[in-house]
Design a protein that fits this description.
about 575 residues, three-stranded antiparallel sheet, elongated, transmembrane, myo-inositol:proton symporter activity
């Protein structure tokens, strides 16, 4: 291991699979810690379906877009704090204790949400859940990375990403299971307490990260764990490399004060943060969590009116997300992190272009409003009644005119002229009584199915690459002495970016339209391609103790289109 970089190819994937019988202990560590990813994914997915029913129970939520965004985004605000504190906790108390604290916070939040009598208490529960998710989002991949053999480190950290997407898929299944149950959304949000309890029990039986133990001078404990992780012919070299790395860090710490300023002046740390934090920012700003948090709403925007239909179609996208993360386990150590991210982003750009075109067509060719159809009901929307140009109104004009307007489609054909009515339960029931479809978020469209195709393609391209690569890179790119702090900074960056995107998505769709919103995400994805080419190094197969040296020697390649010399290539 020492002095050489193992070839990470297809055999790395096979070796990862062989751990199930050769060294199940390593898989036990990875899966137990990875439940933190499951919690992260479950919360991401469950709120998208629960929000449909929270709007039905709390009319204030249905009437106010900002309140819907607050219910989603306050968990992200909590995650920002959790990730910030989590970096310090990981370095001070260890990865294991940090994960247990995260589970406890998640459990408390789940109970509060399930029992919430009003939107305010629900938001408090979301903050607690966010604190737990923020801590777990950095502690889980860090623990897995530090407790994994180098050859399969990428694949095992990818398990965390798989469990994130698996949690999202599970959340949609549970959402569907409780659609007919009393207290629908309360069950959806409360079930999340179960995996938190399971992880607490499992973590009490697992050791601390061996690299953290070495850093704290508990070498005997660390050696005992490494002997369980690595085969006999590799363990001594790994122990020696880790001892050398820790000794160098302690020596540096004794000769100078370790501070944020000192950290940022360190070339390897600074370049690592460029790559790590940049990847996390672009991961969010290409719009992934708007698709996951609001996928049922996006399906409704595409013209599918039913809550159940919206969640069923969203379940398909969630399943594709889980499938994509399985692909990443195979490809992450075969093709490398950088190539996988670039392929992923190119596909994301194409998918967002399709979504932009589809929603533009939907918004500009919606069914017209018929005064005759509207006169059949006693609840005409006031905005339509007072409009000077009501003959030119279509479905989209009706919905955008006022939050109090809804569209009742024609009973013969949804694409024929319909009625613009007051958006309330009475109008909804009166409309559905005649076997008509009721729309408040989007309009009927003959091309709406293309939006589902676009979402599916987006997930398939995003999940194996940009869904996984940022987490893998951030778990392995920072020097050990700064790993907790830098990991916390990167996780905080994720949640701040996530908060900005999620808090603004519905408002953006109202202000500039769904089509232009997706076009904006597409432009960000194009910028992300150039960022990865220029700033992100390849860490495939590089031992964690040698990553720092690689970053010290690597120069940022601004003229990426020029062919590198042999010497430059060897440095990278």
């Amino acid at each position: 291991m020492e002095g050489g970089v193992p070839e990470a190819d297809m055999s790395a994937f096979r070796e990862c699979l062989s751990l199930s019988w050769k060294n199940p202990y390593v898989l036990r560590l990875a899966f137990s810690a990875g439940i933190g990813g499951l919690l992260f994914g479950y919360d991401t997915g469950v709120i998208s379906g629960a929000l449909l029913y929270i709007r039905d129970d709390f009319k204030a939520v249905d009437a106010k877009t900002w309140l819907q965004e607050a219910i989603v985004s306050m968990a992200l605000a909590g995650a920002i704090i959790g990730a910030s504190v989590g970096g310090w906790m990981n370095d001070r108390f260890g990865r294991k204790k940090s994960i247990i604290v995260a589970d406890t916070l998640f459990f408390i939040g789940s109970v509060i949400m399930a029992a919430a009598p009003n939107p305010s208490i629900l938001i408090v529960g979301r903050v607690f859940v966010g604190l737990g998710v923020g801590m777990a989002s950095m502690a889980s991949p860090l623990y897995i990375s530090e407790a994994s053999p180098t050859r399969v480190r990428g694949a095992l950290v990818s398990l965390n990403s798989f469990l994130i997407t698996g949690g999202q898929f599970l959340s949609y299944l549970i959402n569907l299971a409780f659609t007919k149950a009393p207290g629908t959304w309360r069950w959806m949000l409360g079930v999340a307490a179960a995996p938190a309890i399971i992880q607490v029990v499992l973590m009490f039986s697992l050791p601390e990260s061996p690299r953290w133990l070495f850093r704290k001078g508990r070498e005997d404990e660390g050696k005992a764990i490494l002997k369980k992780i690595y085969p006999p012919n590799e363990v001594e070299a790994e122990i020696q490399a880790l001892k050398d790395s820790v000794s160098l860090e302690i020596q540096e710490a004794e000769t100078s004060d370790v501070s944020i300023v000192k950290m940022l002046k360190t070339t390897s740390v600074r370049r690592g943060l460029y790559a790590g934090m940049g990847l996390q920012i672009f991961q969010q700003f290409v719009g992934i969590n708007t698709v996951m948090y609001y996928s049922p709403t996006i399906v409704q925007l595409a013209g599918f009116a039913s809550n159940q239909t919206a969640m069923l179609l969203s379940l398909i996208t969630s399943g594709l997300n889980a499938f994509g993360s399985i692909l990443s386990i195979y490809f992450i150590d075969k093709t490398g992190r950088k190539k996988l991210a670039l392929f992923s982003l190119c596909g994301v750009v194409l998918s967002l272009a399709l979504l932009t075109a589809t929603f533009y067509e939907t918004e500009t060719h919606s069914p017209m409003i018929s005064a005759i159809e509207t006169s059949h009901f006693n609840s005409t929307c006031p905005a339509f009644t007072t409009a000077v140009d009501s003959r030119e109104w279509d479905c989209m004009t009706c919905l955008k005119a006022s939050p109090q307007c809804g569209f009742c489609a024609s009973g013969f054909n949804k694409l024929l002229p319909g009625a613009c009515l007051i958006s309330n339960d009475a109008s909804k029931n009166e409309c559905k009584k005649d076997d008509r479809a009721w729309y408040t978020k989007g309009c009927p469209s003959k091309t709406g199915w293309l939006a589902i195709v676009g979402m599916g393609l987006y997930i398939i391209f995003f999940s194996p690459g940009m869904g996984t690569v940022p987490w893998v890179v951030n778990s392995e790119i920072y020097p050990l002495r700064y790993r907790g702090v830098c990991g916390g900074m990167a996780s905080t960056t994720v949640w701040v970016s996530n908060l900005i995107v999620s808090q603004s998505f519905l408002s953006l769709t109202q202000a500039i339209g769904t089509a232009w919103t997706f076009m904006l995400f597409g432009c960000v994805a194009v910028v992300a391609i150039f960022f990865v080419i220029i700033f992100v190094p390849e860490t495939k197969g590089v031992p964690m103790e040698e990553v720092e040296k690689m970053l010290d020697e690597r120069a940022v390649q601004l003229k990426f289109w020029k062919k590198r010399s042999v010497a430059q290539s060897q440095k990278i």
